[in-house]
Amino acid sequence: MKFTVNRAAFIKELNDVSRAIASRTTIPVLTGLKLVVDQDGITLTGSDSDISIETTLSIADEAAALNIEQPGSIVLPARFFIDIVKQLPAQAMTLEMTTGFQTKITSGSASFTINGLDANSYPNLPEIEATNSVTLSADTLREIISQTVIAVSNQESRPILTGVHFSLSENQFLAVATDSHRLAQRKVALEDTLAASADVIIPGKSLNELAKMLENVETVEMRIAENQVLFILGKTLFYSRLLEGNYPDTTRLIPKESDTTVTFNATELLSAINRASLLSHESRNNVVKLEIDPSGAKITGNSPDVGQVEEALNVKVQAGNELAISFNPDYMKDALRSFGNIDIEVSFTTALRPFTLIPVENGESFIQLITPVRTF
């Protein structure tokens, strides 16, 4: 195996694949990066058994300046190899497999030799057919992920809640996440009617990594298999394992009616919560209090050791009963950031029941729900 490549183009592909490579794993070969070189280009693969990423650097890509002298394949120690490539002095680099699985990397006056492994020892990626697939705009998928993954659980005691529940049926895409203290739900209407419905739970960690790769992509094809999901991002394939089990029925958690509704600008409310939480973070229970009465709404934060803060809020529309409710400000900040600079309607039933945040326009498409904190 021997090839010469533009280092900048090669590093870009290395960065994508490295997202899937774990520094520690029970399968030693997975700490490596798999390279397969043929007459069409270089295929790079990284995996930690939960996430697998495969991308191709094509011989037709002029920016890559790829010259293949001899095809072949090898697994190289990812951490060392990527660090070496990034530190090489010249614009071009040459990689050549010499005796056994030793690999020589040269660039300018620098030369490295590192030990590799047989590529046949690397696990094969699953083949997922396009029979159960949906195509989405990359911007839409990135938005769905950012608006729901904030509510996944970090507790491994309930593994099913560490993922986002994706439901696809006919022409609707529904994504839901909850950690039992808060919930995020996003609906998207699909342009094409699906041939078959699908119901999968994708780990939040996988979706976070996927979202980072959607910057310069226009559309994403999502293919679903029995225990894997594949996202096709142009020349890059992103595989993730699926979580096994039944996701809880979250529809019953969302209140159908409310006794008090208040409309705020999400950005203005976020700024006020940020200020109130400066002191609440110093207290053990980390809560802020929202009070609503005929004169308007105010937010208060209190820390016995430091002091207290009180701020009147800018209310756009208000209706219903008086209310005093306490909640975790960090949950509220995560929810408000997901809306951006728009007006939102916050709906309450009682001081101890979950409350919802929805956009004033197209409210059915996006719901954030937060469980209040009992302070007495």
Automatic annotation (TrEMBL):
A GO cellular component annotated for this chain's UniProt record is:
DNA polymerase III complex
Residue limits of the DNA polymerase III beta sliding clamp C-terminal domain? 252-373
Name the SMART domains for this protein: POL3Bc
Q: Keyword annotations for this protein?
A: Cytoplasm, DNA replication, DNA-binding, DNA-directed DNA polymerase, Nucleotidyltransferase, Transferase
Entry's localization field: Cytoplasm
Q: Which Pfam families match?
A: DNA_pol3_beta, DNA_pol3_beta_2, DNA_pol3_beta_3
Q: Which residues form the DNA polymerase III beta sliding clamp N-terminal domain?
A: 1-126
InterPro entries, per this entry? DNA_clamp_sf, DNA_polIII_beta, DNA_polIII_beta_C, DNA_polIII_beta_cen, DNA_polIII_beta_N
Gene3D superfamilies noted in UniProt? 3.70.10.10, DNA Polymerase III, subunit A, domain 2
What's a Gene Ontology MF term here?
A: 3'-5' exonuclease activity
Residue ranges of domain DNA polymerase III beta sliding clamp central in the record: 136-249
One of the GO biological process terms: DNA strand elongation involved in DNA replication
Function (record text): Confers DNA tethering and processivity to DNA polymerases and other proteins. Acts as a clamp, forming a ring around DNA (a reaction catalyzed by the clamp-loading complex) which diffuses in an ATP-independent manner freely and bidirectionally along dsDNA. Initially characterized for its ability to contact the catalytic subunit of DNA polymerase III (Pol III), a complex, multichain enzyme responsible for most of the replicative synthesis in bacteria; Pol III exhibits 3'-5' exonuclease proofreading activity.
Q: Which NCBIfam families match?
A: dnan
**Similarity annotation:** Belongs to the beta sliding clamp family.
PANTHER family assigned to the protein according to its UniProt record, in alphabetical order: BETA SLIDING CLAMP, DNA POLYMERASE III SUBUNIT BETA
Q: How does it assemble?
A: Forms a ring-shaped head-to-tail homodimer around DNA.
Protein name (database record): Beta sliding clamp
Species source reads Periweissella fabalis
